[in-house]
Amino acid sequence: MPFRCTALLLLAISVIAVADAGEVPAGNDAHESGRAIYNYRCYFCHGYSGDAKTLTSTYLAPPPRDFTRSDPHMLKREDMIDTVKNGRPGTAMHGFARLLNDREIVQVVDFVRLEFMLEKRPNTRYHTDANGWPEHERYRHAFPFATGSIPLDTPWQALSPSQVRGKQLYLTSCITCHDRARVNDEGAAWSKQSVSYPRNNYSHTEIDAVSSASIYVKHDVAPSVDDLSVQAREGKALWQQNCAFCHAADGTGENWIGSFLEPKPRDLTDAAFMRSMTRYLLRQRIREGLANTSMPAWKNVLDDEQIDQIISYIDEAFFTLGSE
Predict the structure, then answer these.
(1) What is the CATH number of domain 220-317?
(2) What is this structure's pTM?
């Protein structure tokens, strides 16, 4: 049998074998539900395309799994379901049993197996309209610094006018996510600070009463506020989708991701700081971002009405803001 026919036959057998294991075809409602869960819960470490080419993976040892290189016959479906549910000891993979029910765990596992491991699909790209990056080409001058084709520490005087604009744009807009740019001189190694070594192997589902090792879970719970205004209720949903990742669900910035950032995300419950904060100042900072921090500009992702809704939620849930 010709090689190509043999390969196609083997692929067909693989598809049948995986389908027999309980997975569903692409386009199915369950598959799309799995995609939505993956794109919200898993992309940060494993990447939108399942290849683990992420900023996070450069910090983790061992790195997150590259699903595009995983054999679905060697990596069993039931083992993946167990890993998503309970975590994997000795790695940064924590259990999601607290966040996902059994049906959702099965859906996301089946999505990964079919989308990445079997069919090698890209899922989605980072810089798309759907991910809040309309007209991504407008950042083109910064692309050489994001991709590493031009070292970030190239002297300003050695750059062309276009490259100067690109470096300025990179430093003000792109470095929030692309902060591991290529440089000629790495300099001294960063001093490392202990962040968390949970005795239950990175599973943040409980707080250890003895060591308080898993100290982050309590900050992933939004405060219970009675009688939120309509605008603040809309803002709460936007907060959870866009802001809680760094500032935590409770606004303190003391969640797991927030603990990695330097300077730390602003604690919006801190009275000493918030007494001087007004709606006008907060609106400007959300729209334009803050230089030399991980706070990006949101004006191209959120419109003015959505920003005001988030501000109303901050005002009603975390700290009463001053007037305009």
Answers:
(1) 1.10.760.10
(2) 0.45
* Domains of the chain, residue spans: 3-118, 137-174, 220-317
Tokens 């902060």 sit on residue: 179
**Residues, the chain:** 324
Q: How many CB atoms lie within 10 A of CB 203?
A: 20
**Contact by Cβ (8 Å): 75, 82:** no
Residues of the chain with pLDDT under 50: 1-24, 191-205, 209-211
pLDDT in tens, 207-240: 554 445 567 778 888 999 989 999 999 999 999 9
CATH number for the domain whose boundaries are 3-118: 1.10.760.10
**Torsion sign, CA atoms 113, 115, 120, 123:** negative
